[in-house]
Fold this sequence. Notes:
By secondary structure, this protein is of the alpha+beta class. The protein has one domain. The protein is built from one helix and two strands; from the N terminus they run E-E-H. A two-stranded antiparallel ribbon has the order 1-2. The longest helix is centred in the C-terminal third of the chain and has 14 residues, at 45-58. The chain starts with 34 loop residues before the first strand and ends in a 14-residue tail after the last helix.
Amino acid sequence: MLKRLDIRTCIECGLPYGHAAFSYHAGKSENGPSYWSDRGILCSVVCSTAHFERREREGDVMKAPAPNPLER
């Protein structure tokens, strides 16, 4: 059976959106995440950098900025 992906967790480390350690735009959770990609949200600059570097190694870098996944 396929595991359902939760769009409200960091795609790199799994930290849930709403956790105190999650980075939010302007420091407020109601403003949305500070970092995201076309694959989902990222909790911090550390996970954002790791995600970018992993995709670069895989040859799958983003071609254009991704829309905020929480605004869809």
